[in-house]
Specification:
By secondary structure, chain A is mainly alpha-helical. Chain A has helices spanning 23-40, 45-64, 72-97, 102-114, 134-159, 163-189, 201-209, 214-224; strands spanning 2-4, 10-12. Mean pLDDT of chain A is 88; it is low at 1-17. Chain B has a domain at 1-45. The model of chain B has no long low-confidence stretch (mean pLDDT 90). The chains are: A mainly alpha, B mainly alpha.
């Protein structure tokens, strides 16, 4: 439909109402987004989880009211990817851009002493600042500028059923698997400075980091989906 | 390849990916402990060797505030750049059109899957919920734990 706004301007308007958008599900999505943003701040993670739970319950209620909503699994996996990517993105970007602040040094050094020695050993000693391990810093650059911002926007687009969201969830999922492989290899090669230089070593690191297994869980599930459904 | 072969092949590949996940993490954990033993460390609890610390040096309240504010602005810029780029590069177009509506009943979850793996989906959802909570809670706990243990 062409809508004549003025003598000079013609605006294309899509007359088809989005069948997947309803007041209840839109409201639920706003709760989910607010929850993901809170989780992304790192410190407000528990509050973010509560907001996400409210969003999920609102979606459930919308479904009970007979409104059409996407399957719960789509929302759960999308939010899992979004929260994980946000925390990685913000965490590493703070090391990249804010390593000269008192708060970051306190946090990094404490985390380093308990979990990963690389985060206090020779901290701020390279020209890029922050963590001094060259490979760790390279992974941080990859994380902050490439994979995690792309994954954040892909996860939200995936939840909103955009085709490119589905495609980029897969693309960034594989990139994340590659990142895990390189990252873990580097940690093990650098054992004395990283695991060895911390209070809780191997056990502490695995307890803390195993929860970041997002891509390994989502990739098999993504390949089971019918990609025709991501059609906007 | 006929459709049933494609479906069977993809189902096998999906389960192979799940197995790869298990092998990756179990293997990674085992190798970590083997390397720890090789370097003369134990479980990691109480046998770490801490290096001396330097002195925390910030830029003052306003300096730190400006740095953190700047980091926030850069982060938002990076996110926007990626959104702008992908949404334009991958927008549906004549050379890459959206699939036609197949008339499926979208209120049924099965319509969303090309390969039906309901049990696997249920298990993965359970792990995903657990991991989402774990990631958010553990990340949020870093600063409070550090402050309690080592102070500001």
């Amino acid at each position: 439909m062409v809508n004549q706004v003025s003598n000079q301007t013609a605006v294309q308007v899509n007359a088809n109402k989005d069948p997947l958008s309803s007041p209840q599900s839109d409201k639920a999505d706003r709760w989910l987004l607010a929850g993901a943003l809170c989780c992304g701040t790192i410190m407000l993670g528990p509050l973010g989880l509560i907001l996400i739970a409210v969003g999920l319950s609102k979606l459930h209620r919308a479904r009970q009211l007979g409104e059409w909503v996407r399957p719960t699994a789509v929302t759960v996996f999308g939010m899992f990817a979004l929260v994980d990517a946000s925390i990685n993105f913000v965490g590493w970007s703070l090391d990249m851009f804010a390593h000269n602040t008192h708060m970051l040094q306190t946090m990094s050094w404490g985390f380093g002493r308990m979990i990963d020695g690389g985060y206090y050993y020779h901290y701020n000693s390279t020209w890029l600042g922050g963590v001094s391990d060259r490979a760790e810093k390279s992974f941080a650059m990859f994380a902050v500028f490439m994979i995690f911002p792309a994954r954040i926007v892909a996860a939200w687009a995936f939840i909103k059923l955009r085709r490119w969201g589905y495609r980029w969830m897969i693309l960034t999922g594989w990139a994340y698997v590659f990142l895990w492989t390189g990252y873990l290899s580097n940690l093990l090669l650098n054992f004395p400075d990283r695991f060895g230089n911390s209070l809780y070593g191997v056990t502490g690191w695995w307890i803390f980091d195993i929860f970041y297994m997002t891509p390994f869980l989502t990739l098999p599930w993504l390949y089971a989906l019918n990609r025709r459904r991501w059609n906007r | 390849m006929i459709e049933t072969d494609v479906i069977r092949g993809r189902r096998h590949a999906i389960y192979a990916l799940v197995a790869f996940c298990a092998v990756f993490f179990i293997g990674g954990i085992i190798v970590s402990y083997v390397v720890a033993a090789k370097y003369g460390y134990g479980s990691g609890f109480g046998d770490g060797r801490l290096a001396p610390l330097g002195t925390v040096k910030g830029q003052g309240f306003f300096g730190d505030g400006a740095i953190l504010g700047g980091a926030f602005v850069v982060d938002v810029g990076i996110l926007f750049a990626w959104y702008w780029l992908i949404s334009r590069l991958e927008a549906p177009a004549e050379d890459d059109p959206l699939p036609a509506d197949d008339g499926a009943d979208l209120s049924r979850d099965e319509s969303w899957y090309f390969i039906q793996v309901p049990n696997l989906t249920r298990v993965l959802i359970g792990i995903a919920v657990f991991c989402t909570a774990g990631v958010a809670i553990l990340a949020a706990s870093i600063l409070p734990v550090v402050l309690l243990r080592y102070g500001w």
